[in-house]
Structure formats: C-alpha cells, structure tokens
C-alpha cells in the first residue's frame, strides 16, 4: 500500500519568509510524528499527534514553529519568519498507535533557508 | 536530556565482510529500541523494534541484540553487500516519552565492491 508521503520534496526560501510542509500519513494510522534532521546528526523529535490533537509538542524549538492535523489525517508543519538555522530535512512518520509500534517514515522535505 | 550514542560514526568495509555497530542508550526507564536503515534520497526503513532484554531479531543477513540492563544494542550484518551501504540509525523510546523517539547520530556504512 501507499507509504507516508511528504510535499514538497525540496523547498528553498529566503530568510524571514513563511513556509508550510505537508505530510500524508499511511491511511488509518492515528499517530503522526514530525522530526527534523540537521547535517551530521540524527533526527530530532518535534511533535507527536494522536488523532487531531498534539499529544507532545515538547520538541518544537520556539513559537515560530506550529503544526496542525485538523481532520486526524494530513498534517502541516508551519514555520514563520524562517531563519538560516531552520535549514534541515523535515521528516514525517506515522504509526497505527503509540507504544512500541513501528514508525513509518516519509522521504522528507529538504528545507533550505538562504 | 536522553543520550543515545552510536559507534562508529562511519565504517568502510569490503564486500563479503561481516560488520557490527553499537547503540548505547539510558538503562533506566526503557520502553523500546528501534533500528532503521536510511539510504540516500529514500525514506528511513524500519528494521527492528526491540522491547525485551535479551531480544535477538533477524532479517535476512541483518540481526540485532538488546541488553536493556546495561543499555546497549548491537546490529550485525553478515556478508556485507554494496546495497547495504546506508546510514544505520538507532532510536530509543523511554517509558515516559509517549510517541517520541530519541535518535543516535547514526553509523554511515560504505561497502566497497
């Protein structure tokens, strides 16, 4: 079946601009996660949704970052007033529940802030 | 702050060699340990989810072991092939972290023909 998809695959923007990154999880998966990976590091947790609500947003670095999942399926990560330090690969994952369930990842969106 | 460390950072081996790498994680409040393989320009691929001390899992030529009391896991690849070239990531889930995975920085494996 279809895996997790993310759009766009690449996004180049200028410092100070607003960007939206989209994630389509595996159909029927109630849990959705956002991570970001900076060069030379492992993925870093940003936020976890269970259904429509954010169960854990402790990884969002500051109030410029916001994520929504209004209907419990597609999620959008929104970054305001982008900074060069926001450049990274943003990964989305979904799972059928919580616990020790496997998280299935999308291919990521590579964000470059000039 | 949870500390998940992987070693080595990178590894070059010849085709046919067997190899292994290490993931160390906090030994307290353990819930699960995940292994992923991430090839360039692709999605990270789930290899194993391990939950019990002493667990051993196998998928083809790849296997993994888990020691939760001392806080480490080993990933083994037998008879490496060029297509095994990838970054191998481990990720720790604690008992209080809901869905959050804490990743190590990865081991970059290059298998030379």
What does this structure look like?
The complex is a heterodimer of chains A (114) and B (113). Chain A has 114 residues and is mainly beta. Chain A has strands spanning 5-7, 10-13, 19-24, 31-37, 44-50, 53-56, 65-68, 75-79, 88-95, 104-105, 109-113. In chain A, the strands form 2 sheets. In chain A, strands 2, 4, 5, 6, 9, 10 and 11 form a 7-stranded mixed beta sheet that branches. A 4-stranded antiparallel beta sheet of chain A has the order 1-3-8-7, with no helix packed on it. In chain A, a hairpin with a 2-residue loop joins β5 (44-50) and β6. Chain A starts with a strand and ends with a strand. In chain B, 0% of the residues lie in helices and 55% in strands. Chain B is mainly β and 113 residues long. Chain B has strands at 5-7, 10-14, 19-24, 30-38, 45-50, 56-59, 62-67, 72-77, 86-94, 102-103, 107-112. In chain B, strands 2, 4, 5, 9, 10 and 11 form a 6-stranded mixed beta sheet that branches. Chain B has a 5-stranded antiparallel beta sheet with strand order 1-3-8-7-6, with no helix packed on it. Chains A and B meet through β4, β5 and β10 of A and β4, β5, β9 and β10 of B.
Nutshell version of this structure?
The complex is a heterodimer of chains A (114) and B (113). Chain A has strands at 5-7, 10-13, 19-24, 31-37, 44-50, 53-56, 65-68, 75-79, 88-95, 104-105, 109-113.
Key descriptive features of the protein:
heterodimer, A: 114 residues, mainly beta, 7-stranded mixed sheet, 4-stranded antiparallel sheet, 11 strands, 0% helix, globular, B: 113 residues, 6-stranded mixed sheet, 5-stranded antiparallel sheet
